[in-house]
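Model it.
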Amino acid sequence: MDYRWVDEGAGRGWYRVKNIPSWLPLPAHVRAPHVKESAFSMEYELLQAIDITHPVSGQITTTMILAHVKYIHLRNDVPNECGVIDIAKYIPVARLRNISHGRLGDVFGLPRSVWRQEKEKIEQVLEIRERREV
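Modeled.
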């Protein structure tokens, strides 16, 4: 069972779940607990927790966390020979909604647009839009 997703009730996070054998006390700046098998973790200080409420019901639907990252832990086997995170080793998991999760599959590169090369095209499109709005 993945204890990190245990719903412990309001005001409690997964880090408070007891009896996880993979806890590893690492040297820390803010003394945060870590899961040994995790490829990546961050230590942070909470700046603000903002409750997001549903516009109709007024119920709190989620909480946005603003934090100051103090230290990032990256497992030694995750960076490639150039020191860049190897996505195939990192294998990030995303929580999509409710109980749905996703895993990164194919990774590909897309060239970045260069403003000097794209400027005229963008300005033409904006000019056409402005004319239509008038």
